[in-house]
Amino acid sequence: MSKSKDFTLGLISGALVGSAIALLYAPDKGSNTRDVISYRLSNYLDELTHLIDKLSDEKESISEAKRKGDLVVEDARDRAEDLIREAETLLDTIEDTKENEDNAAKEAE
Predict the structure, then answer these.
(1) Where are the alpha helices (DSSP H) in the chain?
(2) Which of 11, 26, 48, 107 could bridge 33 with an S-S bond, Cβ 3.0-4.6 Å?
(3) What are phi and psi of 29, to 5 degrees?
(4) Beta carbons of 7 and 50 less than 8 angstroms apart
């Protein structure tokens, strides 16, 4: 499991255990206890919603960074291929020039 899932699971289980303990040791009336539990659950849900939104934003940021990284790698690959083609063309030109010079030298003899 990822850390965010572990944290979310821990948050939810902690809220449930805390609610159960509060019910068992509540010195107050049932209606007041229910109000307190309702308030706490509402807060936990708000925190959980905030956490989910934050994780979603981070996931989008990671996806965007990965996309940009992939574009950089693709651009670098294209440039490297262009440089290799240019080098091969240059080598071919050098070989052709050398062959022409050798042929001209043989004809001059």
Answers:
(1) 3-24, 30-108
(2) 26
(3) -65, 160
(4) no
Which own/partner pairs from 33-40 qualify as long-range (CB within 8 Å, at least 24 positions apart)? 40/15
Q: How confident is the model at residue 103, as a pLDDT?
A: 74
DSSP string, 60-84: HHHHHHHHHHHHHHHHHHHHHHHHH
Q: What tokens appear for 18 in the block?
A: 């805390």
User: What does the alpha-carbon distance between residue 8 and residue 6 come to, in Å, rounded to a whole number?
Assistant: 6
- Is residue 23 within 8 A of residue 37, CB to CB? The reply is yes
* pLDDT tens-digit readout, 19-76: 788 777 767 777 777 787 788 888 988 888 898 888 888 888 888 888 888 888 898 9
Question: Distance between CA atoms of 66 and 52, rounded to whole angstroms?
Answer: 21
Phi first, then psi: what are they for 2, rounded to 5°? -80, 165
What's the token pair of residue 32?
């007041």
